[in-house]
Amino acid sequence: MFNHQTPSSSHNQDQQQDDSDHDHHDHQTIREIHALTTPHPQPPPQPYHHHISSSPSIASTESENFTTMSREFNALVLAGTSITRSETSEVANSNNTNNGSSNLERIGEEDMSENNPLAIVRDDNPVMSRRIIIAGGNPNEVSVQTVKKEEVESKISAWQNAKISKINNRFKRDEAIINGWENEQVQKSSSWMMKIERKLEAKRAHAMEKMQNDIAKARKQAEERRATSEAKRGTKVARVMEVANLMRVVGRAPAKRSFF
What is the pLDDT, as a whole number, of residue 10? Predict the structure, then answer.
């Protein structure tokens, strides 16, 4: 119906609406209601791009633009009157806000809710939002950080194991060298001791042989000296017996001094 209005009819309707508004304001008592808290400033509305369908003729396009403007103006007037009448209570205010939004929808205006994820929107609670971001975090970022941490930890573990295995191998080589040197020294000392023992065995055998020879020689010399002494004793005994027999025959007593 609004699409087929003429400029004169729209002007008459606007004048009648203004007269009714003046009459209503004369009889209505306006009560001012102040908000307890300052309302948060709303972000600037996004520019509204109204697409107008093209028509084959320029005249029809201009008439459609004019009728659209008059329709938007009427909707704005109706929205303003409904908002001023609904300031008596909070419930009425919320209901009229919904009506205003419906009226704004009628003229083609959309709700100023930001749906663009890249748009810059004022943060009313920056501390809480920062805490929520720190506490919750993005699961993708957390998973990436976890993967990076696990990768670094695996690299550190691999480096640690490589260094420890290298140190252990070096220690095993040093231990093998030390064990070889120890065995060499023990073998050298054992061979020296065995050499000394062999020498001592040779000296002992030579000393034993010399001892036995000395014993045999001493026994032989002792036998010879014993035989010589026995021969001297027998010779002396035989001479004494001969002199004694001679003295018996003569009958003379032996002198005090003997010639023997």
Answer: 47
Residue pair 90/96 in contact by the 8 Å Cβ criterion: no
- Report CA 135 to chain centroid distance, whole Å: 22
Rounded distance, CA 177 to CA 170, Å? 11
- What residues contact 5, with CB distance under 8 A and at least 6 apart? 13, 67, 70
All residue ranges of the chain with pLDDT < 50 are: 1-11, 22, 24-28, 34-35, 37, 39, 47-59, 91-92, 104, 107, 109, 126-135, 260
Distance CA 156, CA 244 (A): 128
Instruction: Enter the pTM of the model.
Output: 0.32
- The dihedrals phi and psi of 117, each to the nearest 5 degrees, come to -70, -20
Best CA proximity match to 97, nearest among 85, 115, 107 = 85
Residue of 26, 30, 8, 29 whose CA lies nearest to 18 = 26
Alpha helix segments (H runs only) across the chain: 7-27, 58-85, 90-106, 126-135, 139-250
41: enclosing H helix or E strand: none
